[in-house]
Specification:
about 190 residues; mainly alpha; Arc Repressor Mutant, subunit A; Tetracycline Repressor, domain 2; 9 helices; about 70% helix
Length: about 190
Amino acid sequence: MRNTAELRDMILAAARAEFAQCGLAGARIDRIARTAQASKERLYAHFGDKKTLFREVLAADSAEFFRAISLRRGTVPDFVGDVYDVARDHPEHLRMITWARLEGFALDEPLANDEPVFADSIAAIEAAQAAGHGDRTWEPTDLIALLLAIGMAWATSPHPDASTDDPAIIARRGAGAVEAAARIIAAPR
């Protein structure tokens, strides 16, 4: 017999798979309940409605994604490598964020360890720029958006060969993303 926390976790896992695959509009509560081996009534008792469940899954996925890619001082190009790895290894996180945007959800500022992510990232960029390790002409928020896009480029690419399990290609693409970031942030000579 599952306790309440176990049932809730199973519902969230089933909802994550369903929402990542189908989005909010296409997801079906009956499929989520069946996968979680729960009744629809239990699901509604825990989460109220489908939108609330979607928001919970989105918040958990966003937090997990941003915890894995925190930008640390002195490692700006490596941040892009982390983004590349997480986007490749956990595409469900990007799908959830994409579905949320497509469904018209306003995305809250991501948190990692209950702290706003972008404030730390901006501070890391500013510190690198102040230490002469980055082009000071970049606005830190613009630079973060560009760096995220570079790291996620292959995960969001429509190219037919975007998806691969070839370790050499995966390594080359990751190294290319890090190199692109290093070139973008390099201080002008």
